[in-house]
Write a structure and sequence with these properties.
With about 325 residues, the chain is α/β, with parallel strands linked by helices. It is about 35% helix and about 20% strand. The longest helix has 15 residues. InterPro entries: THDP-binding, Transketo_C/PFOR_II, Transketolase-like_Pyr-bd, Transketolase_C.
Length: about 325
């Protein structure tokens, strides 16, 4: 058993290193991923150790980066593409939606595109416009794409490797505000299924379901609620497409209440689909409507206002109180 405490950033770096070591067909591509090691240093040292032909600094051209990755995947490679910031992905959206997501079906299953698109996402880093988006719903809506997000170092390490091994394209959202949060990583563990949710705190009165950066906020909310005698379960969804509805249902049947939390706007967010499905599945178990907590349906604000925009402890606890009041 090889357990090491590391940050999410370090876990991602170690995961990429292991993938490069295990399979010579794994390539890393993106803006400044080589000599600089990425703006968040996720690829630090990899070009030095594996060479410029496997860790490739690209031009500032997201559509070209993803298009090239598609071509490489068609030739048997497993490209891992880094989009430098969430708001930079949109020039590549056409390639991702019309080519990457569709090729397997278009070829009647004969062609696979094992491409991972890594996207640092979310706010709370005091950044300028286009650097704090949460566009996961836009990708989760597209058939043919897997969409996942780790919330801790262990999941960052293992989920990225599972994404690289997948024969389907995976959009891998990395919670950038959590990059320096540390946790234990067992590098010899047997990981669970990539798209399975996980109960990270047990409770009996209500379920908080979240993914990525909001899992930590929900754990803090559950701890605060416990001081008032409320038993709150926290469910780390881990995957936005496919969603582990069975896991959510099992939790809700125990607690009878559900609040879904994400940074992205509440309007048409992942929480909307979860609320609808769980209402259908758990109608006779629910003692309150499924509530949602998220960002506002507005452009991401300047850094001075992001604390008001982002769902924090108080907004989550308010939803807990509203649900328990029914």
């Amino acid at each position: 058993m090889a357990v090491e405490k590391m940050s999410i950033a370090k876990a991602l770096n170690e995961s990429l290193r292991k993938a490069l070591e295990q399979d010579p067909k794994v390539l890393i591509m993106g803006e400044d991923v080589g000599k600089l090691g990425g703006v968040f240093r996720i690829t630090d040292g990899l070009q030095k150790d594996f060479g410029e032909e496997r860790v490739i600094d690209t031009p500032l051209a997201e559509s070209g980066i993803v298009g090239t990755a598609i071509g490489l995947a068609l030739r048997g490679y497993r490209p891992v593409v880094e989009i430098q910031f969430d708001g930079f992905v949109f020039p590549a959206y056409d390639q991702i939606v019309t080519q990457l997501a569709k090729m397997h079906a278009r070829a009647l299953g004969k062609i696979k595109l094992p491409v991972v698109v890594r996207i640092p996402y979310g706010g709370a880093i005091g950044a300028v416009e286009h650097h704090s988006e949460s566009p996961e719903t836009l990708f989760a809506h597209v058939a043919g794409l897997k969409v996942v997000s780790p919330s801790n170092a262990s999941d960052a390490y293992w989920m990225l490797q599972q994404a690289i091994l997948s024969d389907d394209p995976v959009i891998f959202f990395e919670p950038k505000r959590r990059y320096w949060d540390k946790g234990e990583v067992d590098t010899e563990a047997i990981p669970g299924e990539l798209h399975k949710s996980r109960v990270v705190r047990e409770g009996s009165d209500l379920t908080l379901a979240a993914y990525g950066p909001m899992v930590k906020v929900c754990l803090e909310a559950a701890a605060a609620a416990a001081e008032e005698g409320k038993s709150v379960e926290v469910l780390d969804l881990r995957s936005m497409s496919p969603v582990d509805f069975d896991g959510i249902q099992a939790s809700v049947e125990r607690t009878r209440r559900l609040v879904v939390v994400h940074e992205a706007p509440v309007f048409l967010g992942v929480g909307s689909e979860i609320a609808a499905r769980i209402t259908e599945r758990c109608f006779y178990h629910l003692e309150a409507p499924v509530l949602r907590v998220g960002g506002f349906h507005a452009p991401y604000p300047p850094a001075r206002l992001e604390d008001e925009y982002l769902p924090g402890l108080d907004r989550v606890l308010d939803a807990v109180d509203r649900s328990l009041a029914y």
